[in-house]
Automatic annotation (TrEMBL), chain A:
InterPro entries: Ald_Oxase/Xan_DH_a/b (IPR000674), Ald_Oxase/Xan_DH_a/b_sf (IPR036856), Ald_Oxase/xanthine_DH-like (IPR016208), AldOxase/xan_DH_MoCoBD1 (IPR008274), AldOxase/xan_DH_Mopterin-bd_sf (IPR037165). One of its GO terms (molecular function) is iron ion binding. It comes from Paractinoplanes atraurantiacus. PANTHER family: ALDEHYDE OXIDASE 1-RELATED, XANTHINE DEHYDROGENASE. Keywords: Molybdenum, Oxidoreductase. Residues 38-149 form the Aldehyde oxidase/xanthine dehydrogenase a/b hammerhead domain. Transmembrane segments: none annotated. This is Aldehyde oxidase and xanthine dehydrogenase, a/b hammerhead domain. The keyword Oxidoreductase applies. The keyword Ion transport does not apply.
Automatic annotation (TrEMBL), chain B:
Pfam families: MoCoBD_2 (PF20256). This is Molybdopterin-binding domain of aldehyde dehydrogenase. InterPro entries: AldOxase/xan_DH_MoCoBD2 (IPR046867), AldOxase/xan_DH_Mopterin-bd_sf (IPR037165), N-heterocyclic_Hydroxylase (IPR052516). PANTHER family: ALDEHYDE DEHYDROGENASE. It comes from Paractinoplanes atraurantiacus. GO terms for molecular function: oxidoreductase activity. Residues 5-269 form the Aldehyde oxidase/xanthine dehydrogenase second molybdopterin binding domain.
């Protein structure tokens, strides 16, 4: 069925006019569509290699515990088991993926050493001839623990007297000396004082899985040159290569990553979870090695979208102007940093939403708890914030008895407005998408709102 | 039992790219003997269509047909560096790098063609058919296969180009949060219509109406697929998904497969209507902004607001489960 052309050319006519293209702006068939529907697309797991070995993991049974002993002797007796890998076999065991852009400290071990910080944390990797033998080997690893008090709530983690779970000494990521990524613009207290009304509400979310059809995985093949060829479904080939080389403590030129066909990413395949251990297993056994998450691992052990808790306090005028917004935002990073310090900064840059508010104050906390580490996921830092911000906008509009779209149009940012992170807005179009959405559903806007435009400066 | 109808709104923006670590991607292009153009990248196409849109960028810039473009990507030995596919950066960063590489290759292509035609390269043009022509004299032309053969075997030149897009690293000011993290912002407003069953607490999302401003829709059908596919994820986030159903009180009862981890099936997909506006970004490839991530965002609060409109229950915790609806209805009746 032919689709109606989705582009409405009535908007931004002056800025669109140079559009004299031959293939840009045309619907060209997706290049991989035929392969996908005929089954010819080659995913990393479609490759087969003689003597392929498999990696499975023995994982922590506790949220937070000291490891007293690890006994691999029974695992090694399982027929088909080739090796066990512990932290002692990992050349550079402590890492944080964002060290590539200078984020510190290295807060996560590839394999746990003397303690575990979340249920499911990897402790021992077992390499075997078959998946079944690797699973049985992993099952037979014996770990004894002394349980430690666990912190499972972001605000409890920050409370005085909470057990400190991180070696760095705080249950939060430190942003250049601050306990949170700060946003300070105008004078928010003065804004509340001048407001006709002040409202404060709380929002929260639970962790969410990327749920890719294809779970995270790789096959590492030792090459005759001595290099390692990594067939991976990573979302970022060099990011994976660089992090893996650092963990292996090998020259970057020793590794080659081949990928590019991904059965669903959504941010779940940028954490570099499988390649380092698969490389170590390949080096130790001199065999091709496959390490791929089971569905259970993908859902309970791989990083989810962070749960967040967000408090928004707004000062509003009777005419609908928001004059002050204060946001306290908590990202549940789980046990380790991964990409969460970055996502929390992204959340901060997104506040106070696409609206021009003269007084804004935010503390965006990246908080550690004894949970599966969260990390990147489609829109991280923004998706949950948008749920909170736009629920807040609906409640404010209702409280002021103003039409919800008119309320947004009153506050919508425009070209030339200064954002709270002190970047001048340009190329804005919030007003126009609101107007167009209103038209789509027959939501009538008064003329004074229909003539608004993003490129018309706000009246002082 | 009553089915309660409600409508909710949400308007959002979303940044293209995130450059707090520097945010580069590179592209290399070279012509084969018969005038194919191989675009070498290490970028990953997640299935969203990156390979297709950057091929369009190469074809448009070179002035050659799509059939002449070969995308060779995601091999760190053969492709130049790319930061990765995330932060709604692929189309913007890789597209820009490909355009820069294609411009350089096009310059050589026109010089080779000019020498073959014995005219000034500056007087030549392309029209996307595979020919290089003399402006104002359409019969003076040469096909790209002859241009490439001449470059390889007669003139001894490589028709090739190098491209990179880099937005330099920016460091947030710790005291104030002043920063320059992104390249541009895309915009969206979604309207959700829902039905709430006041006996079971089940929310059915009936429809989503979406208006997006995305700079330039390089491939309108694929842009619409991103809008509507992302909205599916938004619906799923809103009313179905969590790996920890009792967060934060307990980590128990975490789903381990798709029998327990629910998402919308064909019967739960809302009807969608989507309109795209274009306000070209000055730094985007042909004005395009990134919309990969944002399309899941607006539906969630739009659904929350529609639920309130339908039944008066304000849900402030995701996901919006039937249990939370029923508890909210009970509280209203108390």
């Amino acid at each position: 069925m032919p689709r109606v052309n989705p582009i409405d050319t009535d908007y931004f006519k002056d800025e669109r006019k140079s559009a004299d293209f031959t293939v840009i702006g045309k619907t060209v068939q997706r290049s991989d569509a035929l392969g996908h529907v005929t089954g010819r697309t080659e995913f990393f797991e479609d490759r087969s290699f003689p003597d392929l070995a498999h990696v499975k993991i023995h994982r922590s049974a506790h949220h937070h515990a000291r490891i007293d002993s690890v006994d691999c002797s029974e695992a090694l007796r399982v027929p088909g088991v080739l090796r066990v890998i512990t932290h002692a076999d990992v050349p550079s065991n402590w890492y944080v993926v964002l060290r590539l852009i200078g984020i510190e400290p290295n807060d996560e071990p590839v394999l746990a050493e003397d303690r575990v910080l979340y249920k499911g944390e990897p402790i021992v990797a077992v390499v075997a001839d078959s998946e079944a033998a690797a699973l049985e080997g992993a099952r037979r690893v014996k770990v004894t623990y002394t349980e430690l008090p666990a912190v499972l709530d972001v605000e409890e983690a920050l409370a005085e007297g909470a057990p400190v779970i991180k070696q760095a000494g705080t249950n939060y990521f430190v942003y250049e000396g601050h306990h949170a990524r700060r946003l300070r613009f105008g004078d928010v207290e003065q804004g509340f004082a001048q407001a006709d009304h002040v409202f404060e509400w709380r929002y929260s979310s639970a962790p969410i899985e990327h749920a890719p059809t294809e779970t995270t995985g790789c096959i590492v093949v030792p090459q005759s040159s001595g290099r390692l060829l990594i067939h991976s479904n990573t979302q970022a080939a060099f990011f994976t290569l660089d992090n893996t080389a650092l963990i292996l403590d090998r020259p970057f030129t020793d590794l080659q990553v081949k990928g590019g066909t991904v059965g669903g990413g959504f941010g779940g395949k940028v954490d570099v979870m499988v390649e380092p251990l698969a490389c170590i297993a390949a080096m130790l056994t001199n065999r091709p090695v496959k390490f791929v998450y089971t569905r259970e691992e993908e859902m309970q052990v791989s990083s989810p979208r962070a749960a967040e808790r967000i408090y928004i306090k707004d000062g509003v005028m009777n005419d609908g102007r928001i004059v002050a917004r204060k946001v306290m935002l908590y990202v549940d990073a789980g046990a380790y940093s991964r990409h969460s310090p970055y996502g929390t900064t992204k959340a901060c840059a997104h506040l106070p939403g696409p609206y021009t508010i003269p007084n804004v104050y935010a503390d965006c906390h990246c908080v550690y708890t004894n949970r599966t580490p969260s990390s990147a996921m489609r829109g991280f830092g923004v998706t949950i914030a948008d749920f909170a911000l736009e629920s807040q906008m609906d409640r404010l509009a209702r409280a002021l008895d103003i039409d919800p779209l008119q309320f947004r149009l009153i506050n919508a940012y425009r070209d030339g407005d200064m954002k709270a992170h002190r970047k001048v807005a340009e190329g804005t179009a919030l007003i126009e998408v609101i107007q167009r959405a209103a038209a789509l559903v027959g939501h009538e806007l008064p003329d004074e709102f229909r003539v608004l435009s993003s490129s018309t400066p706000r009246e002082a | 039992m009553t089915l309660l109808y409600g409508r909710g709104y949400a308007s959002v923006n979303y940044p293209t790219g995130m450059n707090l670590g520097g945010d580069p991607s590179q592209a290399l292009i070279h012509a084969t003997t018969m005038g194919g153009f191989v675009v070498s990248l290490s970028s990953v196409d997640l299935g969203q269509g990156l390979k297709t849109v950057v091929a369009q960028c190469a074809a448009e810039t070179l002035g050659m047909p799509m059939e002449n473009i070969i995308i060779d990507t995601a091999d760190t030995d053969t492709g130049p560096h790319c930061m990765g596919t995330f932060a709604s950066r692929g189309t913007h960063r890789v597209g820009n790098a490909v355009i820069m590489a294609a411009r350089e290759a096009r310059d050589v292509m026109l010089q080779v063609a000019g020498d073959e035609l014995e005219v000034d390269a500056g007087d030549l043009e392309t029209d996307g058919t595979g020919f290089v022509r003399l402006k104002g004299s359409p019969e003076t032309k040469i096909h790209i296969s002859d241009v490439a053969l001449a470059a390889h075997f007669k003139q001894g030149r490589t028709i090739s180009g190098r491209g990179i897009f880099l937005k330099e690293r920016n460091y947030p000011v710790p005291e104030t949060g002043e920063m320059d993290p992104d390249s541009c912002q895309a915009h969206a407003c979604s309207v959700a219509e829902v039905e709430v069953d006041d006996e079971t607490g089940v929310v059915t999302v009936l429809s989503l109406h979406n208006a997006y401003e995305i700079g330039r829709a390089l491939n309108p059908a694929m842009a619409t697929q991103q809008v509507e596919g992302g909205a599916w994820m938004g619906v799923s986030h809103a009313v179905f998904e969590s790996t920890e159903p009792y967060y934060p009180a307990s980590r128990d009862h975490g789903p381990i497969d798709f029998n327990e981890y629910l998402m919308p099936g064909p019967g739960e997909i809302p009807v969608q209507t989507s309109v795209i506006l274009e306000r070209p970004a000055s730094n985007g490839p042909f004005g395009a902004k990134g919309i990969g991530e944002m399309t899941a965002n607006a539906p969630i609060p739009a659904i929350a607001n529609a639920i309130f409109d339908a039944c008066g229950v304000r849900l402030t915790t995701m996901p919006f489960t039937p249990e939370s609806i029923l508890r909210g209805l009970d509280a209203l009746r108390a």
